[in-house]
Fold:
Amino acid sequence: MNLFFWHPWLIPILPLAGALLNGLFGKRFPKSLVASIALFFTATSFAAACAHAYTLVHSGAAVLETTYGTWIRAGNFSVDFGIYIDHLSLIMMLVVTGVGFLIHVYSVAYMEHEGGYYRFFTYLNFFMFFMLTLVLANNYLLMFVGWEGVGLASYLLIGFFFLKNSAANAGKKAFITNRVGDFGFLIALFLLIQHFGTLRFSDVFLVASNMSYESTAGFLTAIALLMLVGACGKSAQIPLYVWLPDAMEGPTPVSALIHAATMVTAGVYMVCRSNAIFSRAPIALLAVAIIGTLTSFFAATIGITQTDIKRVLAYSTVSQLGYMFMAAGVAAYSASVFHLMTHAFFKALLFLGAGSVIHGIGGEQDMRKMGGLRKYMPWTFWTMLIATLAISGIPPFAGFFSKDEILWQVFSSPHGSKIFWVFGVITAFMTSFYMFRLIFLTFTGEYRGPKPEPHSAHGHDEHHGTPHESPWLMLTPLVLLGVLSIVGGWVGIGNRFEHFLDPVIQKVSTEQNAVQNGEATATPVSEGEGAGSESKSTENMLMGISVLVAFSGLGLAWFLYVKSPALPARIAAASGGLYRLVLNKYWIDELYSAAIIGPLIAFSRVVLWQTVDQKAIDGTVNECAVAARDVSQIIRQQQSGLIRSYAGWVAAGAAAVVAYMVWMGTR
Amino acid sequence: MIPISWYLLLSAFLFACGVVGFLIKRNIITLFMSIELMLNGVNLSFIAFATRLGTLDGHIFVFFVMVVAAAEAAVGLAIIISVYRTRETLNVDRVNLLKL
Structure:
């Protein structure tokens, strides 16, 4: 073990160093140096993360916690700078640094022709720093710092092409929507301080472990629900998911890194991290599960109708995050984190593949203008196909294991319900359908894009003529992520992943469980075994159903988009209003702007701006100035410049003094 | 014996004459004389009270005032001559070069 990697604080600090170096001096550096700096600091951070993962797993300890000093001290309450590495943050840290590094490599080639090269890598490294702060913090406040920091980085990167109005607006939308969630998170922190007196994870969980199961709403439920609000903002769940599809205005590697693989999973991470609280608040858990289920379902329906390749993936991300919430909501935290990890692999791959497609055909994002790209870019096609198989839940690809685990947990967990499971299966079907729709529209059939123009007709950049395969620097990450998308799920075979996370998840005995346990001890052992084999067969049946559903989604997509390509338009026309409703994303954006944003702007304009600001505040200041001017107007008559009038006033004053003294004397 | 109030009335009258003269006249020399008149009005009060109270304090003050007035007259007249040489007038209202 290299001693250099021994300090856990290096993991987040290294990307920060890269960001500072590039941010302060990058403008004068050549592109290759900028890229080398960014890659070097990300790679070393990944290496350090690996070293710590090795240490943690082989030491057998549950947690490696290091504190570097006090940040805030107020009375008995104090917050430290500290790093907390357990099995959960270990997975997050490896995903962030590992996938992050691959996406850095990809960006080196992808961003080659864009302006602001150094700025891009500064932001990316900056994001890595905050994301690692988020997942490695040893208390909620430091986590909140990372939480806000990734929001900032996300804002900067969505609005990277800031000259484009839509990009600038999308950045603002993401930032403001996240503020709503952060508000909830912040209040949850205040409640934690009030009830626990500390924000340190280990202390909070220790105190929580002595608390009883809250079958009615109490303060744990309140804390959990407010945390859920925060998680909804960051992880793009109903009702705060609207920012994520718009976030696709950012460069594609950003969509892959921040808006698919890492940042948006922060909410899931937070819920899983706070499992000690959530497990004791069943009402909040139910809310998590309902929100997750609804989000995954609705986002999937929207995903079916979108034509922009990145937007399909964006809604797919929202939908998959809904899956993770659904799993967390039935207290299957390890299944949730498992899906988070596999999703990071295949969704990053999908986005990078989409980026490769967009790069290859000169910036076009509309799938209706693609098609037949398989022969132009075989590497992109095969890797994206792997990712699509993975996300659709087709064995033996990664998504199958995690998604199946979630569906099984949703079905069987004491917090779960068959209704969630039904929605989950329908969503799985839709996921498979829209993902293969994407593949078929993009890669099969004939190329529907503009015909390559005659050479140098408009002095066009030559390589934007015909579709072409991306450079190897972009393909290498695709291939590596493709491998991960295949093997990433195998760690879940035989519930190994679940047991890996066991030290992180607190076992909470609900009243329900307690009764069951009581029964279990009373019943003979043989019957218990019988129940076990029965649940095993149920599990296999459910597995069969989800595989069947995945293949039927594939089949339907093949039928509609390869076999009879005229049919989708006819179906769309036949379903009329419903189709338009879904195509327009249920008019949620319009609803929000009419119900919330419009009134808010009107209120701000009329009351805050025109009344409070212009009349009350500006009015007060202006009236003070006017009053001073008017009084001065009168008094300035005295300063006539005539010496004699001054002398007269002196004499009059003296006379007044004398008169006063005489009057006082004679009284 | 003349009562003190007479002296004081005369003193007040002299002082008032000085003030009025200072305010309404334009000639510098007249203004100068008005100032002297005021000073001497005050001197008269000092002397009257000193005699009445039988102390020397008032007398001493009067001497001081006379000394200062003499010095002032010397400086003042010098200024007046210099003003007249440069401006060729003794009207105070026209000596206004320092005004904006």
Summary: The CA atoms of residues 110 and 474 of chain A lie 7 Å apart. The first helix of chain A runs from residue 10 to 25. Chain A touches chain B at residues 641, 643-644, 647-648, 651 (CB under 8 Å). Strands of chain A lie at 63-74, 77-86.
